């Protein structure tokens, strides 16, 4: 007897459900996407016990007539595709025809739907994939789908579902992505009977973000504007410098109206912020990507969570250039007031009025010394005029070994000498690289270095930007390269060690097709290997050079160059705040 046999329909549906229904949030996403495809202007989502007890999605979309409602529960039944060629131009959210039968196979399922022009609707009850009843029913136009007792018939699947808080957070994250992808659609979401979101239709993305997360969230963002190139358009919002999280939960990417995860976009975003991020942090972002349907494949993940780009390097380049430009444009003008702090002089209080004292014996006599007249405080030197709207810093002096103390418009500022020096050196090298003028120190004797296969490949592919940074390196047979010159910034470090570090940085970042992104990666690696420059000038010179930089508030490795203690914070610590 043969070993191969066809699976029963019930088993096949449960296998498909394992791909489509990863967790309760997957059901919410699939059902809400169907509602959007149905032209819904309002979608109401309810769930209980993290979706395991109940998931309900109601919309006011086009609804279905009786026969279509029955057919929607058959596997691979869809209204979105007619031929394989249609896969290259999919614009709808759903198209596989597996969502409803997969959900119905692992729950107690109810479908209630009615077309707007129909006098009545259709109600279908399904339990574990088996249709129990099909009835005519009265209902509002649109569709209601309920999935109760998720995985009741496959308890082994339920064991992989995590705790209620985790799964509820996943559902709310899915709702956020859907709401961002469709601002013109109203959304509501209730958890265990408690309203979490009540979002009216919004005329723009910024209004939807304000309704969803509050005005403070929007204040943390910069508008990206419209960036386009090679058939790709990117808009949205990106984080102001310093607005980061320890996770990617507030990085939202929408591609052709579909909320997705995209390693290419996440990588380009991180690369654009690489000089402003410390380890393990991620910038907040809301990115909307539009492109020709032939340039993106949304059929690469069973739950349609990811997409594949035909030209990923072009997507990375357009986003990188757009984000880099908006970050360079958005730091406030600053000026340095080069004047010393006034010498410290204790304030001598006026003589307080003393209450009458008891008379002392005549034999005891105290002489009360007269206070010396106070010298008038010297007038401070005039403050030079600053650019209108500029932030002004006054240098107070050295603070410890590594810092300068400054007075800023909002409080006390500590300037980190090393981080500031690294930022100055990085941007100077970057300008030199872009002009082809990076200083190079030639080695007296060329050094032959053997590299691992991947590092060797990256070095050989990037000899031009390495030469622009001051490296003179070329392949030398096998897995070796010959180093004839090093960037002056690298000092007297071992050439092989510096090249290993640069290669590792390049390989981790990935190669961008545009010049500046690759130049920044190489410059950052060179600065890391050289440890930055030690600035020999005083605080005025260091601060003046730092504030000429495009991004003065962080080192090229994400450490802050300045930390502020606001007047309000100081008053609170001294117990004077209201």
**Percent of residues in beta strands?**
15-25%
Number of helices: 17
The structure class reads alpha+beta
CATH class annotation of the largest domain: Alpha Beta
Largest sheet: 8 strands, mixed
The CATH architecture of the largest domain: 2-Layer Sandwich
Shape: globular
As a whole number of angstroms, the C-alpha radius of gyration is 33 Å
Looking at the structure, the CATH topology of the largest domain is formyl-coa transferase, domain 3
Summarize the structure.
By secondary structure, the chain is α+β, with helices and mostly antiparallel strands. The protein is 31% helix and 25% strand. Strand 7 (186-191) and strand 8 (194-199) form a beta hairpin.
Describe this structure in words.
This protein has 3 domains: 9-84 and 94-200, Histidine kinase-like ATPase, C-terminal domain (Heat Shock Protein 90), CATH 3.30.565; 220-329, Ribosomal Protein S5, domain 2, CATH 3.30.230.10; 332-340 and 390-578, formyl-coa transferase, domain 3. Helices cover 31% and strands 25% of the residues. It has 17 helices and 26 strands. The chain has an 8-stranded mixed beta sheet. Strands 9, 10, 11, 13, 14 and 16 form a 6-stranded mixed beta sheet that branches. Strand 4 and strand 5 form a beta hairpin.
Essential attributes:
Heat Shock Protein 90, 31% helix, eight-stranded mixed beta sheet, globular, Ribosomal Protein S5, domain 2, formyl-coa transferase, domain 3, alpha+beta, 3 domains, single chain, six-stranded mixed beta sheet
What's the arrangement of secondary structure elements?
Blueprint: H1 9-20, H2 24-37, E1 42-48, E2 54-59, H3 66-71, H4 99-104, E3 108-114, E4 121-127, E5 130-137, E6 142-148, H5 155-158, H6 164-181, E7 186-191, E8 194-199, H7 205-213, H8 215-219, E9 221-223, E10 227-229, E11 232-239, E12 244-245, E13 251-255, E14 258-260, H9 263-272, E15 282-283, E16 285-291, E17 296-297, E18 308-309, H10 312-329, E19 334-337, E20 391-399, E21 403-408, E22 411-416, H11 417-435, E23 440-450, H12 453-461, H13 463-468, E24 472-475, E25 480-487, H14 495-509, H15 515-530, H16 539-546, E26 562-566, H17 567-573
Parallel strand pairs: 1-7, 13-16, 19-20
Antiparallel strand pairs: 1-2, 2-6, 3-4, 3-6, 4-5, 7-8, 9-11, 10-11, 11-16, 12-15, 13-14, 17-18, 20-21, 21-22, 22-26, 23-25, 24-25
Helix pairs in contact: 2-6, 9-10, 11-15, 11-16, 12-14, 14-15
């Amino acid at each position: 007897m043969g070993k191969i046999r066809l699976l029963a329909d019930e088993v096949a549906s449960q296998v498909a459900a394992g791909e489509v229904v990863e967790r309760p949030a997957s059901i919410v996403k699939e059902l809400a996407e169907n509602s959007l495809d149905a032209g819904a202007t309002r979608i109401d989502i309810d769930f209980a016990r993290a979706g395991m007890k109940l998931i309900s999605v109601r919309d006011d979309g086009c609804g279905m007539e009786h026969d279509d409602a029955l057919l929607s529960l058959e596997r691979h039944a869809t209204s979105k595709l007619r031929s394989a060629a249609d896969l290259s131009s999919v614009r709808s959210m759903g198209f596989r025809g597996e969502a409803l039968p997969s959900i119905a196979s692992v729950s107690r399922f109810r479908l209630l739907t009615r077309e707007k022009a129909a006098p009545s609707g259709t109600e279908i009850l399904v339990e574990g994939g088996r249709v129990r009843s099909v009835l005519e029913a009265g209902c509002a136009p649109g569709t209601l789908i309920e999935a109760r007792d998720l995985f009741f018939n496959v308890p082994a699947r339920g064991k992989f579902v995590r705790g209620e808080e985790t799964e509820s957070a996943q559902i709310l994250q899915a709702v956020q992505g859907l709401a961002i992808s469709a601002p013109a659609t109203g959304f509501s979401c209730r958890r265990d009977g408690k309203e979490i979101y009540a979002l009216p239709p919004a005329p723009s993305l910024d209004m939807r973000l304000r309704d969803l997360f509050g005005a403070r969230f929007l204040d943390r963002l910069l508008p990206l504007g419209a960036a386009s190139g090679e058939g790709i358009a990117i808009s949205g919002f990106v984080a102001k410098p310093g607005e980061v999280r320890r996770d990617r939960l507030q990085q939202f990417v929408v591609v052709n109206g579909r909320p997705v995860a995209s390693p290419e976009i996440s990588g380009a975003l991180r690369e654009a912020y690489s000089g402003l991020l410390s380890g393990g942090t991620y910038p907040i972002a809301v990115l909307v990507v539009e492109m020709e349907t032939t340039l993106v494949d949304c059929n690469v993940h069973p739950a349609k969570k990811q997409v594949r780009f035909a030209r990923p390097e072009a997507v990375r380049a357009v986003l990188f250039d757009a984000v880099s430009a908006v970050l360079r444009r958005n730091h406030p003008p600053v000026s340095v007031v080069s004047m010393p702090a006034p010498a410290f002089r204790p304030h001598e209080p006026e003589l307080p009025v003393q209450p009458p004292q008891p008379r002392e014996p005549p034999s005891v006599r105290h002489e009360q010394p007269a206070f010396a007249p106070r010298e008038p405080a010297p007038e401070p030197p005039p403050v030079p005029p600053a650019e209108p709207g500029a932030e002004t810093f006054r240098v107070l002096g050295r603070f410890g070994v590594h810092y300068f103390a400054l007075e800023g418009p909002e409080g006390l500022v500590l300037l980190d000498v090393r981080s500031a020096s690294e930022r100055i050196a990085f941007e100077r090298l970057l300008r030199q690289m872009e002009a082809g003028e990076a200083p190079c120190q030639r080695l007296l004797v060329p050094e032959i270095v053997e590299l691992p296969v991947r590092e060797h490949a990256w070095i050989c592919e990037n000899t031009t930007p390495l030469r622009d940074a001051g490296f003179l390196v070329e392949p030398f047979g096998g897995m070796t390269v010959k180093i004839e010159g090093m960037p002056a910034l690298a000092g007297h470090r071992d050439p092989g060690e510096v090249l290993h570090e640069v290669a590792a940085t390049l390989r981790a970042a990935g190669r961008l097709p545009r010049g500046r992104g690759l130049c920044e990666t190489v410059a950052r690696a060179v600065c890391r290997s050289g440890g930055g420059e030690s600035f020999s000038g005083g605080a005025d010179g260091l601060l003046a050079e730092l504030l000429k930089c495009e991004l003065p508030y962080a080192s090229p490795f994400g450490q802050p160059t300045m930390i502020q203690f606001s007047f309000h914070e100081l008053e609170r610590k001294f117990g004077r705040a209201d």
